[in-house]
Amino acid sequence: MPDIQAVLARLFELVPRDSIRSVYRGGIVDGSSLSDLDIIIVVAGDPRAVHRVSRHLGLGIDVRGVFSSSDFLSRAPYFPYASIECVYGIDESVAFADARSGPRDLLKLACLFHTGFMRSFYPLVSDARTSSLEALRALNDFAYVSELLGSIPADVSAYCDRVREARGRHPLIDSAEALLLLRQGIDMAWRVAEILNDRLKDAWSVSYPPYVSSGREWTLFVPASSEDCRLLTDRLGRLSRLCRIAYLPLGFQAIHTDDPFAREYAARNLSPYPGFLPRIKWLIKMCVAFPLYCRLWLSDIYSVFSPYEAFSVRRATETYAEGQYLIPAEAAAFEACGSGHDARILDIGCGAGRTTFALWNAGYSAVTAIDADRRLIARAKGTASPERASSFISADALDIGTLFPDGAFDILLFSYNGIDYLFPETRRSDFFRIAFAKLTRGGYLIFSSHNFLCANRAYAAMYARNLLAILSGRNYLCASHSFGRLLTYFSRPSAVVREAESHGFVIHRIVPNVSPFFPFRDPFPYYAFRKP
Known about the structure:
Layout: H1 4-14, E1 20-26, E2 37-43, H2 47-54, E3 61-68, H3 69-75, E4 84-89, H4 94-98, H5 102-115, H6 118-126, H7 132-138, H8 145-149, H9 154-169, H10 175-203, E5 212-214, E6 218-222, H11 226-235, H12 238-243, E7 246-249, H13 260-270, H14 276-304, H15 307-311, H16 314-319, H17 328-337, E8 345-348, H18 354-361, E9 367-371, H19 374-383, H20 386-389, E10 392-394, H21 400-403, E11 409-414, H22 425-438, E12 439-448, E13 450-451, H23 457-465, H24 467-471, E14 476-481, E15 484-491, H25 493-501, E16 506-511, E17 526-530
Helix pairs in contact: 5-10, 5-13, 6-10, 7-10, 9-10
């Protein structure tokens, strides 16, 4: 890396010293000869005069911008660096420091995944002509991991140290060792993506998120694990190498949050490059990305969809975090069962306790509640009294098979269509089997389920969007919510009754949400089944 003092001396040969207000060095300096020197120049007068000569500073010197003082202060928070350092003049980088925070650092690292990381690694690994220089330059992305991600697991930290050590040994490191590091870099990049995904979902909320990003590089967002996103990306093979398209889990939708800083940062750092040729490349990639997007939602989603991923975004937590009430159909279902207030109740998919608190308020004392979302359970515990906080358990619906003994409950409540998000269908069948075992004889299973016979306007539009899935005989259709898309089980009421009865239940009562013209106007009736 060029010496900064030599660069400053060359700069002052080209322009008068008094025209330069300050000079900043951007990025992370790891002491490697492979690091470019990114500098930002703040001038006292007209930036154009300095900008014309800045290209003559020498090789390995990347002038990222020449700004007036006011322009620098407005742009500094959006520089794609982990840090910047004033190397000459008046230090005004407090504007940059103000932009450093946990959530914003996560967003900056997420943006690197939208432009670099494994997108850069795949083409290099597949090219037999890749040199150790190219491999080690690409691995510079890992220099940002510990700086922007904060605490990182030991294996990620050890790999970052190995990259730093290898870059420091260049040019003595041979191509075979550098390429091995690069191959391992793909594995480690997906490992970092998994960690970053979880933290992004905690930090940023996105309403009505898009599932494709057409920024500098095309990205498809998938409600699936990082491992499955990698499988989809790897499957692209040559397309991934040529078009740099990647599948990423939902946390990376954070670049589309409504937060003003996030929107501005993404606009400045992820927008396509200007110019005719970059625009043509972008359009070619779009022609590849669009069929992949269609294939994702027509077929791929049925092999990788994860309801945990879909419900774990922050917006979903916010959606299900408020209220303490039973809707009329829920109250009517409990009344139809005729159980006393001493009934042992398990509230499955309780969220932040909407139905749990309502049952307590109605006089039911023996209520246990579970939900797979740890954040919703934490909120419910915080709302409950100390003696009742332990009634909330973070667990999946199928975990009740091992959490509780057989015959432990008089009523199982799976409210607000939660049963329809058990995916794939084998998990839904497993739930009926487990629920039957956990109920005492004469106990009740109460749940609601989406009604395929409903013909209201919202359902009609959803059916139109899922026409191919319906024609192919799929029960799971893609339904949109404020926090994203979910594969949702739809069935006729008669089919729901047959399904439960096949596991030993007996229908006790169907409680409509909308009585007139049932079932053709009721989106999700409630069912009460009895264990004989």
